[in-house]
Structures are given as structure tokens and as C-alpha cells.
Amino acid sequence: MSSEKEPVESRLGRAVQAYQASVDDFDRELARLMGVNETGLRCLEILLATEEVTPRELSTRLGLTTGSVTTMLDRLEKLGCVTRTPHPTDRRKTLVRITPDTAQRAYGLITPFLGEATRQVHARYSAEQLELVADFLSVNQEIQQRHVHRLRELPAPHPGRTGGRQAPGPRS
């Protein structure tokens, strides 16, 4: 088989790129079905993983200005996807939560994928192999995050575009 003669690094690099493209495709379709843009979807993913978050935390995690986060939250709140409530102990802060209906809708869309992936992956790989895969993904996620932060510090070569997902670049 010719792929066995190809260096594993090349095969792995292509596999990671193909996987990332599939994740991007899945996220685009999920955003479409949820009626939000990709940045709004990423916000909802954060809220599914954490019960509540402040707009400033969202700003940091999404690489957006606080003004952009406010606009995004206004849009998501109007769609009934999130709620904003005053922080119980710090009146200067606001807490953002995903609505139960939105969480249920999101889980309804992703649960079939998660179930199939879990069944097939656990049937194919041993616990030891899965530990190695988990470690590989963790190391790569840490490296990628460092480079996300590096890229966020670089100025864009052209004036910013409107719409879509765009981080603000370096903050003065």
C-alpha cells in the first residue's frame, strides 16, 4: 500500500487538516440550523460548557472587543438564545446564560453525532490508545491556543471587513 511508504508525519498532518475541515463544516451547519452566525455558535458552545459567564470573559475567550460581544449578545438575546442577569454580588457585572430551549435544541442536534462517535471510537480503540489520542489532542490544543494569542497580537494588513468572524487584532 503506497500510504504505508509515506511518512507518518505527512499522513497525520493531512488527517488533522481533514478533521479540522470537517469540524468547521459541522459548525457551519449547526450555526445555520440554530439560526446564528459562527461567532454566536461559539458563544453558545462556551455557555453549554459553563453554566454562566460574564461578557468580559466572553470577550477574552472569543477574541472580540467588549462592544462586539455586546452586539452579539443583543442579537442572541433577541433570538431567545441567551439571557443576561445582574451578578448577585457585584452590581457592575452581568451574567450570561444559555436559555433552556436553546440548550435543548443544540443538544438535540449534536447528540446523534456524539453518540455515534463515542460508539465507533470506543469499539475501535483500546483505553490505552484513547489515552494517547487524548494526550495528542491536548498538546495540540495548547500549541494552537498559543498561536491564536500570537496571531491576535498582529495587526491586520488591510482594513477590517464587516460581518462574519473576525477578531479585533491587537488592542491598544
Describe the structure.
The chain is mainly α and 172 residues long. It has one domain: Orthogonal Bundle (Arc Repressor Mutant, subunit A), CATH 1.10.10.10. Helices cover 67% and strands 6% of the residues. The protein has 7 helices and 2 strands; from the N terminus they run H-H-H-H-H-E-E-H-H. The chain has helices at 2-5, 8-34, 38-49, 55-62, 66-78, 100-124, 127-152, and strands at residues 82-86, 94-98. The protein has a two-stranded antiparallel ribbon. A hairpin with a 7-residue loop joins strand 1 (82-86) and strand 2 (94-98). Helix 4 crosses helix 5. The model is unreliable at 166-172 (pLDDT under 50).
Low-confidence stretches: 166-172
Overall residue-averaged pLDDT value: 90
> Total number of β-strand segments?
2
Strand order of the largest sheet: 1-2
Class by SSE composition: mainly alpha
Number of domains: 1
CATH superfamily: Winged helix-like DNA-binding domain superfamily/Winged helix DNA-binding domain
In CATH's first tier, which class applies? Mainly Alpha
Q: Could you state the order of secondary-structure elements as H and E?
A: HHHHHEEHH
Shape: globular
**Quaternary structure type:** single chain
Taking the sheet with the most strands, its summary is: 2 strands, antiparallel
Rg (C-alpha, Å): 19 Å
How much strand?
Answer: 5-15%
Total helical elements: 7
First and last CA, distance: 54 Å
Percent helix range? 55-70%
CATH architecture: Orthogonal Bundle
Return the CATH topology.
Answer: Arc Repressor Mutant, subunit A
